Structures are given as structure tokens and as C-alpha cells.
Amino acid sequence: MKTLRTYYDPLIIILAILSVSLLILDSLAVLNLSLSPFREIDVLILLLFTYDYINRLIRADQKGQFFKKNIMDLVAIIPFHSVFAFFV
Question: Which segments of 1-88 does DSSP mark as H helices, in order?
């Protein structure tokens, strides 16, 4: 029986490709990320990445080391998260 861990990496890769694809299509004016259903898809992906990062951080034995090794993950989610929108 396969575990959830078996599906983790492929799922993260698919979500990352989907997220980048949406961003590219939005920049090419093929679709508009501020309109439904693309907005909801984008927000869902962001929430999944945020949950994933926080979950891995909580489970990490050495939080400082985790932070250093995964700084790009954090940088990728912060600018787009609505909680941090006031910085923009």
C-alpha cells in the first residue's frame, strides 16, 4: 500500500508547474488571475504551499536549519500571501 509520502513530491511538482503556468498565462493576457475560477485556483495553490511550509517547519527538529535550507520556499509564498499584501 502506498503512503501519502509517495504522492507528495509529484503533487508539489504538479502544483508548482500549474502555478507558474497560471502566472505566465496571466502575464500574456491569455487569462486573468483576478477573475474566477483562476483566482480561486491560485489562492488554493498558495494555501497548500503555505500549509506545506508551516507543517514542515513545525515538524523540523532544527528550526533554524530548516529556515536556512528552505528560505526560497518562504520567499516564494510571502509576496503573494494576502496577509503580507500591505507590504506591497
Answer: 4-27, 38-59, 63-69, 71-77
Residues in the chain: 88
Rounded CA separation 6/9 (Å):
7
> Within a 13 Å sphere around the CA of 55, how many CA atoms are in the beta-carbon half?
6
> Using CA atoms in the order 72, 77, 79, 81, what is the torsion angle rounded to 10 degrees?
-170
What does the alpha-carbon distance between residue 23 and residue 6 come to, in Å, rounded to a whole number?
A: 28
Reported confidence tier of residue 1, pLDDT bands at 50, 70, 90:
low
Tell me the whole-structure pTM to 2 decimals. Answer: 0.78
Q: Residue 32: which residues within 8 A CB-CB, separation 6 or more? A: 26, 38
Domain range list for the chain: 4-87
> Is the Cβ–Cβ distance between 53 and 63 less than 8 Å?
no
